[in-house]
Amino acid sequence: MVPTIKTLLSISLVASLPVAAAADPKPRNARPAPAGKVIATYSGKTDIWGQDCQGGIYFSPNNQARAWCSEQSENMAAGTWSVSADGTLCQDLTWFYPDGSGAGSSSSEPLCIQHVVNGWGVMYRSWPGDSEWWPVTSSNSSFKRGYVFQSDVNAAKNKLGL
């Protein structure tokens, strides 16, 4: 079965929502997160996707991004990430999947996540269309240092002939 871009985007968006943290309304006195703080939070780390996916997205220090989801383990995504001056992180991915004897691909729309900090410097993030803000702290973070799913991404790439 060839997954549609809508299916892959739905999986990645839903899976990227944190499961260990409680959401809040936008913090009072919130201001845009400094780009350096956002970069330090993501760079060299994998953001673990919970729910049914059991995968995640790796944000490399050279602004490359790789994503994988165990639910569709023969698929993988490759692309880039960047952070704007106002602390908005955008990821631009192309999903690759088995298609006959080769690999098919679907470019997704860029996904941009807003980041703000409250008066105490605690960073929060919010996804497009979501009115809730999720705290990003060491006690509830979905980030793991390193490229957690590297072997899974490489296995999918090899199987796809990429």
From TrEMBL:
Superkingdom of the organism of origin: Bacteria
Alphabetized InterPro entries for the sequence: DUF995
Swiss-Prot/TrEMBL keywords: Signal
Record Pfam families: DUF995
Signal peptide: 1-21
Protein's organism: Tritonibacter mobilis F1926
Protein name (Swiss-Prot/TrEMBL): Uncharacterized protein
